[in-house]
């Protein structure tokens, strides 16, 4: 009986150089930063304002679980969620300000 063929090569694939030339890859770093900042800004704004709207109070999921609905209606939980939103906004703005091109 013949041995089965080796599907994995014994040599590792060639590795790209660690440092790209300055004109290559810069747009990818900018796009990555832009997307991260925009997602964090959007998520932060949603987390800051959502707990204080009627969507938070009359959530269909929470209406099925009365103890969770009572807990989520407290000011402490709403403040905690809004605080996480503010933290998310701060991280997004900090990332946007600290970006430096090399």
Describe this structure in words.
With 102 residues, the protein is mostly helical. It has a domain at 29-98. It contains five helices and no strands. The protein has helices at 26-49, 54-57, 60-64, 66-72, 75-98. α1 runs antiparallel to α5. It is flat and about 65 Å long. The protein starts with 25 loop residues before the first helix and ends with a helix. The model has no long low-confidence stretch (mean pLDDT 84).
Lay out the secondary structure.
Elements (H helix, E strand, L loop, with lengths): L25 H24 L4 H4 L2 H5 L1 H7 L2 H24 L4
Give me the Rg, rounded: 24 Å
The major pleated sheet works out as: none
Supply the helix-strand structural class: mainly alpha
How many individual β-strands?
0
Shape: flat
Oligomer: single chain
The helix-strand sequence is HHHHH
Number of helices: 5
How helical, in percent, are the residues?
55-70%
Estimate the strand proportion: under 5%
Quote the average pLDDT: 84
């Amino acid at each position: 009986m013949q041995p089965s063929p080796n599907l994995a090569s014994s040599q590792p694939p060639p590795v790209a150089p660690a440092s790209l030339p300055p004109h290559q890859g810069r747009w990818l770093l900018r796009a990555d930063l832009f997307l991260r900042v925009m997602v964090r800004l959007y998520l932060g704004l949603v987390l800051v304002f959502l707990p204080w709207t009627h969507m938070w109070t009359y959530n269909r999921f929470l209406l099925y679980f009365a103890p969770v609905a009572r807990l989520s209606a407290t000011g402490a939980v709403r403040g905690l969620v809004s605080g996480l939103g503010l933290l998310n906004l701060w991280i997004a703005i900090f990332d946007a300000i600290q970006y430096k091109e090399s």
